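User: I'm preparing a small set of examples for a lab meeting where we compare how different chains pack in three dimensions. I only have the primary sequence for this one, and I'd like the structure in token form so I can line it up with the others. Please keep the answer compact; I'll paste it straight into my notes.
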Amino acid sequence: MKKVLSLIIAIALLLTCCSLVGCKNDNSNETKPAATTEPGGETETAAPIVKGTAPVLKYIYNTSESHKAIAEYIQAALANVGLTMNLENQEWNTFLNTRKEGNYNVARNGWVADYTDPICFIDMWTSNSGNNDIQFGKGEHANLKMYNLDLTSYGYDIKVTNGTWAETYDVLVSTIKGCVDNEKRFELMHLAEDMLMDTGCIVPIYYYTDLLMISKEVTGFYSSPLGYKYFLKCNYKDNSSISVCIASEPDTIDPALNSAVDGATLCTHLFSGLAKWDTDAEGNLKISPDCAEALVEGVVGDDGKVTYTYTLKEGLKWSDGKDLKASDFVFAWNRAASEALGADYGYMFEVVDGFGTDKLNVEAVDDRTIKVVLSSAISYWDELLAFPTYFPVREDVVSNEAWATDPSTYICNGPYTMTAWNHDSQIVLTKNPNFHDADTVTMKEIKFFLSSDTNTIYTNFVNGSWQMIDDVPTNEIQSIKANYPDEFKINGQIGTYYVCFNVNKSLLPGNTNLTGVEAEKANQEIRKAIGLLLDRNYICESVAQGGQVPASSFVAMGMTNPDHTEFYKTAGHNEGFAGYYDVSKEAYTSNALAALETLQKYYSNVKAK
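Assistant: Understood. Below is the structure token output for the 609-residue chain.
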């Protein structure tokens, strides 16, 4: 992706401005010393920053034409200021694990909401979260004391100066989850996003849309704002079988361990929780009871804790015919929340009383009654119950660690059972006769074909082999819009596509004289500057081409404040634009100028090409 004309123009303007005012623009290895004010009031001069050659960056992404195209654009944008970025394409599961383990410098990333509350964008960055790919509060960053938190104006006796991430951000998220004043809670979530974005580790690119193609012969298909696809109510020909492709080989389909949208789609067809995403008679999405007879109101105790008591529907069965009991839910939730399992989404049980101890405050009163106590009231509890991490599993089944990799051991309780898994090729789901609501399941068989090759995926849709696909070749989008106006869909999806930096990987030159907190502050500046170099409008319009909206924040559009204003539009506290970046087309030149000025503080080789 070589089209970076707007960036070149911006750099030229900067050089012109510098020449007019006598700015220095050479390869000098020092910048002027900065004045600092000490607590006692005396001003002293800090040591000058030693400049050097920018390190070569490596950007990892996973196999996809669109991910590759965006990576190539970023590579070209950085090259035009003298920064070198090499690209590495990794197979999906390798890519996920590389990020998770922190074995990267810069990576493409994306986050789709787990439920319709901004906290699901906020709580993933706590120190112990399995989704904390940036490594906040891990490794060397765990001991870095540079963050501040003052919640006294919100009525909390919490004030930390120069604390670690765990002492500040983790405390803030825990406070948010215990806050019962909804307006105050949202103010605290904005404060948390301020902390995240100030690190520069998250560089939002665009707010997601969900691109898919589905045959005109298929009816009854629906998807949730979380990106999950539902085929159980579909009608296609004689309803004997439907062939679809939503992704390549899933990393896992253990509902407690899965953290991917494609895996969640499979799990929602194979398991049944207390609640589910459903549609009403008009096709509108809603959360409905599933295994539970009803989604009850909680009872608030004098201590502020909230108790929910659920009654399971009669006659619930596992796919092997054994009775499903309340104790199966209790076991599954404790397993998913346990430190021993180390599930990415284990932190989702933080809202349940007892989290962090050996046992959650949840019990099976009898075979059909579950009582669970939350630490405080939360507005998204029913959505959590519909989330795969909260699905039941049976203790004797999961005692076999390989249970979720083989159809013969994959015991579930949902609309379908898994009857075949040809790895890297196809997963076949067959209607489960033991499902409690089997009469509503219209499609007898779903064949999930596994592929990441968008050209192959598209070809199989065009020739009629597959009736639904969840990705298309980027370079075909314009012709697809013209030739398949009824089959091609651009749906709303609550999510953000972003670039992430590993907080433990320095961007400073090898000869830097900065260490500790000063080094991290410099890294923050550099990361933010790189974020300003990227032309989000160009990426959306010329690269992604799927109706995406340039992103100015991490919390995605579609999330709302208590007054129904959009969360992202009230983020960043900047005058004249919403969020943390001005992503208007008119602001790009000034963004690039500011970025170049910052980068030249640290790098001697940053200049116009």
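A couple of notes for your slides: Residues 1-30, 32-43 have pLDDT under 50 and may be disordered. The domain at 216-450 is CATH 3.40.190.10 (D-Maltodextrin-Binding Protein; domain 2).

User: Perfect, thanks.
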